[in-house]
Amino acid sequence: MDDFLARLNDQEQHRYQKTQRWRARGVNPYPLRVSRTHTARQTLDAFARGEALSGVQLAGRLIALREMGKLAFAHLQDGTAKIQLLFRKDAVGAENYATLVKDFDLGDFIGVEGEIVRTKTGEITLQVTRFELLAKTLSPLPEKWHGLKDTETRYRQRYLDLLSNEPVREIFVKRSKIITAMRTYLDEHGFLEVETPVLQPLYGGGAAEPFVTHHNKLDRDMYLRIADELYLKRLLVGGIERVYEISKDFRNEGIDFKHNPEFTMMECYQAYGDYTTMMTLVEELYAACSLAANGTLQITYQGHAIDLTPPWPRATMRDLILKTSGVDIYADADLPALRQRLAELNLKVEAKPTWGKQVDELFSVFAEPTLIQPTFVMDYPEEISPFAKKKPDTLCARVVERFEAFSLNMELGNAFTELNDPLDQYARFVEQSKQRDAGDKEAHPVDLDFIEALMHGMPPTGGLGVGVDRMVMLLTDQSSIREVILFPQLRT
């Protein structure tokens, strides 16, 4: 205990001494239970409706206290609202009144009982007849409730951020509404919510480097999942025709404004659908979630007016790259030819090891920044889409039925017409393995168990992954993923 007390600063030492005075009077400063009949919001609303309220019991933080001789005004804040308190010395007793002034601090949790009145200034107020300490705070609240400004402190001490910044609390209220609306939409459209393993013997379903751990009893390495895809598609083999999971995924990658190593993903799969089916689903899902969070489909994101009303524009990756860079990827359909075209046009693009990755880099540099309104970008290179069916046309044999939805330089969703040919899937795995041997740490490993599942037959399927954190970013107008994750990963 001495070493703990030695760590307290002067303010905390002063509050600790008050805690000891409570104990000396035989009062537990952290009582077991509390009586509460109303929240602050219920009280304010009931009084505004004209209801007579007496014997009201409230509980919350003491966030303001000002003594005026025989009167003291205060404010109590709970999780719903703020309400004024009035303490009269003759009503609560001289000794209790002195204790209030002397041994309560801002931030302490207080329980109060009394009658609701309206003061001469018109403010709805609880006139206190009885009060008690519910929890003594040793550390003072930040900046007298003016809010935390330091970004690093806000993320590392999110509890203080939530406590002092009401707009931050509202973000996470909206996040909850968004996820509820997402789940409701999928449930109402016949999708079954399931849970698949977080700890996996073989990771898969995405292009990412995994986190690795070790299972001592089995004496084998295990992986935190990077995606749910391959387990969910096994369920389609098992006869579940519409399935989804809202899950935590993990990728051992960098941290920036739209990436966090731990993130929330919604993946869903629909038998007898395709990537056009998933486009409709994305439009309707975003509409449902925006209405739940904002009550409108016309939102503002980082100063841009965004219209989420379906249908969203559709464009092929080829057409967008041609329009923004002058390169026709179908005409330069191998890596040497594409690199030569880039050199001829003097386009500054980072060199990539395969045609597919080079196309994706070209798109990211030139086309993606032009996509302000929500847009479906269709028909991706097969090399970066190992789980999508090839597009059945002769323009280019190297593209598949895959789309990504974009808005303001941010991917909002990724979907395929799912590959269900076990021989083709095996060949894709083998090609990915070659890329892995060549040094691509994000290339997909060969998953023979998944191949065996496909050999038992998976119906034609449309599949979709939506980044929940990025959806919340868009629908709450936040420029960083850290603003929509309660406890983001931070550099030390």
Keywords:
single chain, OB fold (Dihydrolipoamide Acetyltransferase, E2P), 492 residues, 2 domains, BirA Bifunctional Protein, domain 2, elongated, 8-stranded mixed sheet, 16 helices, alpha+beta, 5-stranded mixed barrel
Describe the oligomeric state of these chains in a short phrase.
single chain
What's the total count of β strands? 18
Q: What's the number of structural domains? A: 2
Major sheet summary line: 8 strands, mixed
Q: Please identify the structural class as seen in this structure.
A: alpha+beta
Overall outline: elongated
The CATH architecture of the largest domain is 2-Layer Sandwich
Provide the gyration radius in Å: 29 Å
Q: Please write the CATH class name of the largest domain.
A: Alpha Beta
Widest sheet: strand order? 6-10-11-18-17-16-15-14
Averaged pLDDT: 94
Distance N to C terminus:
28 Å
CATH superfamily of the largest domain: Bira Bifunctional Protein, Domain 2
Write up this protein.
It is a single chain. By secondary structure, the protein is of the alpha+beta class. It has 16 helices and 18 strands. It has helices at residues 2-6, 10-24, 40-48, 89-92, 94-103, 151-156, 158-164, 166-188, 229-237, 275-294, 317-325, 335-344, 355-367, 422-437, 448-455, 468-476; strands at residues 56-68, 71-77, 82-88, 109-118, 124-135, 192-193, 199-200, 212-215, 220-224, 242-250, 262-271, 298-301, 304-307, 314-316, 375-381, 399-407, 410-417, 461-467. α8 (166-188) crosses α16 (468-476). The mean pLDDT is 94.
